[in-house]
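FAQ
Q: What does a multi-component entry look like?
A: The components come first, one per line:
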Amino acid sequence: MSAIASATTPGTQQAQPIQHRKKPRSAIILSGTAWIVGILFVLPVLWMVLTSFHSEPDAAKNPPALFAPLSLEGYKTFFDSGPWPPLLNSLTASVLSTILVLLLAFPAAYALSIKPVKKWTDVLFFFLSTKMLPVVAGLLPLYLFAQAVNVLDNIWYLLILYTSMNLPIVVWMLRSFLAEVPVEMLEAAQLDGAGLIRTLRSIIARWSCPGSPRPR
Amino acid sequence: MSAVAESTRTGTPPATPPDDSALARAGAWARRAPLLPALIFMIIITQLPFLVTLGISFMNWNAYYPDEIGFNGLENYRRVLTDANTRSAIVVTVILTASVVLISLILGLLIALLLDRQFRGRGVVRTMMITPFLIVPVAAALLWKHALFNPEYGLFNGVLRWVGNLFGQNWPQPDWISQAPLWAIIAALVWQWTPFMMLILLAGLQSRPLDVVEAAKIDGATSWQIFWNMTFPHLRQYIELSALLGSVYVVQNFDAVFVITAGGLGTANLPYVIYQLFYTAHEYGRASAAGVIVVIATIIIATFALRTVSTLFREETR
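Then the predicted structure of the entire assembly, as tokens:
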């Protein structure tokens, strides 16, 4: 028994290096292509970053002044203009609404995939349908309501609206990842006495994090 | 004995069903409970205002003529549907959505396949790919309009002149936005949406069972056979998911149209026309009617897609 096991393991270990040792030209080409595509996609952003360090005349040169002297002039002007209140507002609204979205979406995605309610497809469709009204067409009631209850110019109202805008897509995406968690793993966890919270934390959260090692 | 069994059997039914159904009801509520906060939140925040929008869509309400506010019946809908602007906006919206979703889906799939392999710097390339999606849509549109498309100092013409100079030639410097306005918007949107498609498809690729693929390899399947018969069917629901979410979002796109062409040169899409009705003409009733039409049309198309071609809603319930 142990002889067989020890005989097979070296075998598989040998087989793998053979597969990976030779690096065919196609692999190099594919990796190179991946790098080129990645650079092309990030290039506009890099260009924006580089231009932000150029002086106004250098930024408007054609052909582009790649190696023009760097300056912090643009940043100085920006920070002198008192950007902190809007920056802090954006930070508060985005961070808090992201937390709120996750708190609402995670249980909802659970109830739509792992232990689905009846008619889960209708619920999913409802979530998506809330994204189908152009924002401009839906603004008037929201504005009138804010005016009526006196929350115009209020960051908390913005936070609620952001949450309602992002909740549907997060529910949809989380659901499609959660649907991949094998039922057997959940059953095994249940048999081992893991409660709901433990299951959520040790299995589902771990499974649905891309990049985390997951058993295949 | 059998009599006893009989009697218990006949005796129990009245007793158990309420018990059973109470249990079942408790179970159903236990299943529903995690869903309720999100569901109730969305109903209150989105559906109550939508009812108001629906109400306004039947009203004659122009902020310039406050005396004439009143019920209008289907007049708004008739005017929106017969308006030439709205009609061309419908065509633009369809072209814009279809091309952005198709192009970014194909690019996203190819890039996801490239990134699914192991290679040096894979994490870096993935981060570079995701960057466009992390940029605020308005900022991205501004970046494309001013830093890339600008005929005087934009990067595209800059590179054209630079490369032209290398060959000792003076290549023409096109004005991208006025020569191909719709394609300028499509390019900017494809740049933003390809990473989104790529992310979903990559997650799909990484969740495919590798042991089966290995078995197929051992059996001598070619890479194309593996892709077409195994990877693609597995990816199908991820492709549908990204196409559906992408379409719903690109139909609503306002930022890119507003910033890059300001709806000019025949690029006004439905959200832009609604914006004009709302903020320029102050026709609240007609703007709401147009919004309701967009919702209804999207729901019809999405339902059709989900019920017929899509496999998203066909998974077995657990």
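Q: Is there any commentary attached?
A: Sometimes. For this entry: The two ends of chain A are 26 Å apart (CA to CA).
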